[in-house]
Structure formats: C-alpha cells, structure tokens
Write the structure tokens for this entry.
Amino acid sequence: MAKQDNIDKLEKMGAQCIGNNDLSVFDDIWSADLVDHDPAPGQGPGGQGLQQFWSDFLAAFPDLTIEVDQMLATDELLSMAYRVSGTHDGDFMGVGPTGKPIEIRGLQMSRHADDGTILERWGSSDVLGILEQIGAVKV
C-alpha cells in the first residue's frame, strides 16, 4: 500500500470516528488482530479493545479534536506528533464530568497491511496531563 493510502486511512479515522463521533468505520481501519504495544489502562486486546477505548474517550470528551503537527509516512509505517483538545463532559478514568478544557500532546506510530488496515500501534499520550487538567491529580 502506498504511503498516501495509509495517510488517507488515518484521516478517515480522524474525520469520521473522531470528528463525527462515528465508530462504524473502525473495522475498515483497524485489524481485529491489532497489536497495541501501548494500550490505555484497562484497554482490552485487539481492534475491539481500541474501539472500546475510543468510544469511552469520545464519551468523556465529545467535542474532542486532534490536530496533527508533524507526520512521517512510508509504504508501511506512519508516525505523527499531534495535539488533542476537548472538554471533559463525561466520565474519564473514574472522574465524573468537570466541564474543564484539556489540551495535551502525543506521538503515535502505526504499521499498515497491504490493504491499509492498521496491524500494529505504538504511542504515547499525556494521560497524566489530562488528569491534572481535570483536577483529578496534582503534579
């Protein structure tokens, strides 16, 4: 698969899954056998586990936006540095809605199959920063 096709898959996820809170496209993007090398706390295995994470995350921050700052792509791998922002309007890691805004940075890398499906994911997002911004922890 060409690198532009891999970029298109992630843009589709951003526009449809995140931008419109519509996870119906998830199975077209993520492999059911996805290997997530950096799962969120409590995240289940495979594509289903990642889909549940996104469902919960979007419920906690329904106005979530992701802005890509930098992207690097090959025919197999895609890496990006990004910023996430939103308003805490639902439960997040046991913390009820506070109405507080969040903004964090993160890095992600994905490995794509020949059909563009994402097979592996590595990443790091500032979860501690989210918890601090919603008042759940003090750093």
